[in-house]
Specification:
Blueprint: H1 8-11, H2 18-28, E1 36-39, H3 42-50, E2 54-57, H4 61-78
Parallel strand pairs: 1-2
Length: 80
């Protein structure tokens, strides 16, 4: 469903440090509002929102898959 996933341990900056979100956006070549951040820790989800990202608290697979699909549909409507 997505082209790339960025893990904080892979970029060497721990969440909720704002630099983690900045590095992620730089690595993906997108603005924060172009990202959907998903995590199961609410503090990290809130930090992502504060960084300007869309964010989703992972609670179950079905809800998260639905949120990713919703985001992809939103992105597709902007590119038309």
């Amino acid at each position: 469903m997505v082209d790339q996933i960025v893990y904080s341990h892979g970029i060497g900056v721990c969440k909720p440090d704002p630099r983690a979100f900045e590095v992620t956006c730089n690595q993906l070549g997108v603005l924060p509002q172009g990202c959907l951040f998903i995590d199961d820790v609410s503090v990290y989800v809130e930090a992502a929102r504060e960084a300007g990202m869309q964010a989703h608290l992972f609670e179950d697979n079905a809800g998260t898959i639905a949120r990713v699909a919703e985001r992809l549909n939103e992105a597709a409507s902007f590119s038309v």
